[in-house]
Amino acid sequence: MAAHGPGMHGSRWRTDLGLRSVAAEQANVEVRFHPMGGGSMKSQTTQVAPGAQSVLEDVVGQLGGSGNGAMEVVSDRPVIVTSRTYNQIAAGAACTPGGTFGQYYAAHRLDDGLGEGEGAWLTHLAESDRFRSNIALTNMGASPATVQVALFDGAGGLLTTFSVDLAPARFHQETRVYFNRAGQGNLQRGSAWVTVAAGSGVIASASVVDNSTNDPTTIPALRAPSAAPPIGEEITVLLPNDVPLVVVRIPAGTFMMGSPEGERGRESDEDPQHQVTLTQDYYLGKYPVTRSQWMAVMGFGAPDRPEHPITSVSWNSVCGGSTGSSCTADSFIGRLNTHLAATGQPGAGKFRMPTEAEWERGTRGGTTTRFSHGDVLACGDGAEPCAVHDQFMWWGGNHAPSDWPTQPVGQKLPNPYGLYDVHGMLWEWVADWYGAYTASPKVDPTGPSTGSVRVVRGGFYISAARFCRSATRDSEAPGWNSSIIGFRVARSL
Ligand SMILES: [Ca+2]
Ligand SMILES: [Ca+2]
Question: Measured by CB atoms within 10 angstroms of the end CB, which terminus of the chain is less buried, N or C?
Fold first, then answer.
């Protein structure tokens, strides 16, 4: 990483490049600066005499560049490369006068980078009043790279995943990554797993910046001795007219279902919170079922607003039957299983509605907070604007009266398991009859054996925020069509 430009609070970033000859002959060195964001590459050549060292002060400025970017050094003889990046703030400036500590960014040989399928950890990251964390990625390879980043909290909980596409020689920095990607504002012990999905020669590093001085500390990536942590495997099936439907794998495990006493906004039907164990991995729809998916399966023509979620579909038309797992032949899920069998696709007969417990586990994504993006106690629980919620959901706080009721799926950030639009957007039908919880631990629960209304989950596009919590429950008659209820599918392993 190299820089020439202003930062926050009057900081002025400069990079010096050191070139130490270790050859018996003069080294001819080309120095290239690849700016972040895609500006044109700047370069110059320089010579280093045998045994000599040259230092290019403010190398980015010398090259006529500005901003952040990646330095590339090409030499015809062996040289040792160092770089220092530092804040050349003016002495006497009101904020951190006299400049700050510099950063050492290691030089990497081409074969030091992560190859396809390889990964590394960035650790000791923070996002709080005191510190913020940035992640920098550089593609040293000759082909485009796709890098996946998974962010974890200090207990190992997966907060979110995202991917970054990098052209060759491209540098990219994610600033305040925990806040901007995962809505986390009070995280003391974060780590990130960086893996290369496509391409090669990828270098990753992080910087943890002191918010009072704006001094960064550089964190190099360390290769992991073991395999990657499990991150949501996806399966895509093709519906009629080749409309794709994506489901995401959710891990088996134990969690607390319902809300704890004292959770702000909770209702009596979320009580008592109780232990639930799901013994098998399963899949949930990555998004609510869309209008195009519904029309394709049900044999209608292409709809308008194809990427909006389908609404006004009854529980009976989604599944029918009695359990949510053996759906009637002419229901959406019945027709979906028939289509998969007829087209020889995997998973025929395995698609069904999620149980209420499966929905809540998938939505919580390993979290125990009110929302899968935190407790969000700094915002109100009604329909007032809230910057944190706005990153993750459609609810009354970001719905304008002039808006179409729904929005295209997948516009907000996913939850930790890679599911979109679980909070808000639409209530979602689940398989279970609605009934009171009991305190005893449950294993693979399927809810009451009889009832009159089915459970819906997650709130909808003009809900107050408190109705979009992970534990919120409501109910509706299975024959009822409502413009505020949709659904997402489940699939057994
Ligand atoms: Ca939803
Ligand atoms: Ca309720």
Answer: C
pLDDT value, residue 454: 98
Ligand having the closest approach to the CA of 426: 1
- If you measure from the C-alpha of residue 296 to the centroid of ligand 1, how many angstroms do you get, rounded to a whole number? 21
CATH of the domain at 196: 2.60.290.11
What is the CA(467)–ligand 2 centre distance, in A?
A: 8
Q: Under a CB-based contact definition with an 8 Å cutoff, are residues 455 and 332 in contact?
A: no
Pairing state between β 27-35 and 282-285: unpaired
Q: Which ligand is nearest to the CA of 473?
A: 2
Number of domains in the chain: 3
| pLDDT over 90, % of the chain | 69
Task: Specify the DSSP element, H or E, that contains 342.
Answer: helix 332-342
Ligand of minimum distance to the alpha carbon of 371: 1
Q: Which residues sit opposite 206 in a β-bridge?
A: 135, 219
DSSP 36-80: TTSPPPEEEEEEE-TT-EEEETTHHHHTT--EEEEEEEEESS-EE
Q: How many CB atoms lie within 10 A of CB 343?
A: 12
pLDDT in tens, 414-438: 888 889 999 999 999 999 999 999 9
124 and 84 inside one domain: no
Q: Is 359 domain-assigned?
A: yes
Centroid of ligand 2 to alpha carbon of 448 (angstroms) = 16
